[in-house]
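Wed. Picked up where I left off yesterday with UDP-N-acetylglucosamine transferase subunit ALG13. The coffee machine is broken again, so keeping this brief.
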Amino acid sequence: MKTVFVTVGTTSFDELIERITSSDTVQALKARGYERLVLQVGRGSLLPAADSCPNIRLEAFRFKDSIAADIRQADLVVSHAGAGSCLEALSAGKPLLVVVNDKLMDNHQLELARALHMDSHLLYCTCSTLTETVRTMDLSVLLPFHPGQPKHFANFLDKALGV
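Structure written out below (tokens, as returned):
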């Protein structure tokens, strides 16, 4: 069953959860062959019920000790732009769509998403452009991010964030 795994990490990003479960976005996911949507909602106020999206199989949880299995089982990972979440998805070799929280001040997430996108490791958007991005995304353009070199990732982050 073709699965999308959505993670917000330890944060609260209700706008992403609302948008990914909206009828427009669910319809766009279904049109691309996705049948299952697994949400990790973190500290957000939303925890959608399994029957809240009638056109797709929905599962939601707040936290687990590890989301590695959820990422491994996913055909697409949709994530906030936290460095840890991005690295985990990219290290697993999964196509990654990052949704930047454009309401954050001093948004380093946007810088990270742009830098990884420029190297063709992920696609990114905001909540307002999520549905259209899902409709038009071409995952075949993504290049693997080679894991196992934390120093390289740390240097990449420093460069991306201007440190």
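Quick read: The chain has one domain: 3-161.
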